[in-house]
Amino acid sequence: MDLNYTDGDLAFRDTVRAFLDASLPADLQRKVSQHLRLAKEDYVRWHKIVAQQGWAAPGWPVEHGGTGWSAVQRHIWEDECARAGTPPILPFGINMVAPVIMAFGNEAQKAYYLPRILHCDDWWCQGYSEPGAGSDLASLKTTAERRGDHYLVNGQKTWTTLGQHADMIFCLVRTDSGVRKQEGISFLLIDMKTAGITVRPIIMLDEDHEVNEVFFDDVEVPLQNLIGQENKGWTYAKYLLGHERTGIAAVGRSRRELLFLKKVASEHFKQGRPLLDDARFAAKVATLEIELMALEMTVLRVITQEDKGPGPEASMLKVRGSEIQQMLTELMVEAIGPDALPFDPAYLDGSAEHSVTGADADAPLAGYYFNYRKTSIYGGSNEIQKNIITQMILGL
Predict the structure, then answer these.
(1) Do residues 97 and 57 touch, judged by C-beta distance below 8 A?
(2) Is residue 325 within 8 Å of 372, Cβ to Cβ?
(3) Which of 130, 230, 244, 296 is catalytic?
């Protein structure tokens, strides 16, 4: 496998860089590079800028608004966005529910939902996890009973990321409790403004409102909001998770954060010299950098086999990518030492121009560390992913 970019790839990279240099608002770049909190308006503004360029959905087929880029070009795009410090294009619509609609939805669903997802006219969230069904997702208990021309949905979802902003939620629901648990699940699209839906915030250790509980109390969902066939939702859920796990690797973002880590470590001192000159700390950084390089090589290998679709490689990328992200945040906190103790939500939310500590770059890092504890859990916990890898590769 040739891991060098072709002249055409390099020319494409220059085009992407020119667009990002001209189009990325400075205030958004500052928030991302300094690990400050992004508001709903920040995500939507950047999504619409990219959609106007026609690049919001690089992985989609051209007939639905995709770019027609190769896998390598999509990798370059993601890499350059990370390098520039763009807000992410949130995955729930573009990368998660949209591929399911394309693969299993009917023509009316494709015609209505895909353009709205492409242009961020609808904000989507994911209704998978429940209080008793996280890694064992097939144990979900939220029910959907047929009542004439609609389903009546009752139950609860949890850890619903940014659900407080959502217009729509894609949900796994139980439509048959008399069969094997994986065989009685369906995939519904639900309008979050429907009567009977309650969103309750979960405030995490970093004091941010990022995740939620969502309650369904006799929520009426039209039958036409069913994706594919009733009781076949488990198949669609696995298809979606394959797309989610591949993206969790986030090599470009980790490379940007590695540069940030080196900068922080060069500005904090131990026994009169920069921490990055300390042999033990430098060895940790070097080990992490090697692991990140190995992950990138794995990603490049996977994208050269894009026609195979998501397989065990998606789980491998999810496991290693999330572990590297956690190692990065751990070393950041280690680098700043006692400066990690003060916590300044006002600065993180943008209501204060500078941190109370006087070290703006350090202020978000404790919260950043706390937030990244979740990466080895969401998208299917790493322990479950290792079981999947064992079963699919070793046949055990």
Answers:
(1) no
(2) yes
(3) 244
